[in-house]
Amino acid sequence: MTHLQAGLSPETLEKARLELNENPDTLHQDIQEVRDMVITRPDIGFLRTDDAFILRFLRARKFHHFEAFRLLAQYFEYRQQNLDMFKSFKATDPGIKQALKDGFPGGLANLDHYGRKILVLFAANWDQSR
């Protein structure tokens, strides 16, 4: 197990191995392969390329390197094209406070039986006119 997998239960590690093709022996190599693709897109400002961040995208794409890189690139392209959305992205911002009051997704304190976070949406509270 690597430091990137620390805190995961044996069941979660096994699930990652079976369902996501995650291999602790090649984890750093997998991350580096995605990181090496960053230079192919000089038009994108990749703000983060640390191991833990790239690992999220690898897991989201079941360790298919190119697909993980494509998702990473799309994420930063979106951020780049919508700078105003991410300028003051703080919980103290009035717009963010209102979104939270309106029922914007929130996380439950407890995890599901697989140890995953549970997100809750209160769509009925959303005011579409704002």
Instruction: State the shape.
Output: flat
Number of strands: 2
The CATH C-level name of the largest domain is Mainly Alpha
What distance lies between the first and last C-alpha atoms, to the nearest angstrom? 47 Å
Residue share in β-strands = under 5%
Main structural class: mainly alpha
**Overall pLDDT score:** 87
| Pattern of helices and strands | HHHHHHEE
* Biggest sheet: strand arrangement: 1-2
Q: What is the overall number of helices?
A: 6
As residue ranges, the low-confidence spans are none
**How does the major sheet shape up?**
2 strands, antiparallel
CATH architecture grouping of the largest domain: Orthogonal Bundle
Gyration radius, rounded: 18 Å
Question: Helix amount, in percent?
Answer: 40-55%
What is the number of independent domains? 2
CATH topology of the largest domain: Helicase, Ruva Protein, domain 3
Question: Layout of helices and strands, plus pairs?
Answer:
Layout: H1 10-20, H2 27-37, H3 51-60, H4 65-81, H5 83-86, H6 94-101, E1 106-107, E2 119-120
Antiparallel strand pairs: 1-2
Structural account:
The structure is a single chain. With 130 residues, the protein is mainly α. It has two domains: 3-85, Helicase, Ruva Protein, domain 3 (Orthogonal Bundle); 89-125, no CATH class. Helices cover 47% and strands 3% of the residues. The chain has six helices and two strands; from the N terminus they run ααααααββ. It has helices at residues 10-20, 27-37, 51-60, 65-81, 83-86, 94-101; strands at residues 106-107, 119-120. It has a two-stranded antiparallel ribbon with strand order 1-2. α2 packs across α3. The protein starts with 9 loop residues before the first helix and ends in a 10-residue tail after the last strand. 8% of the residues are buried. The model has no long low-confidence stretch (mean pLDDT 87).
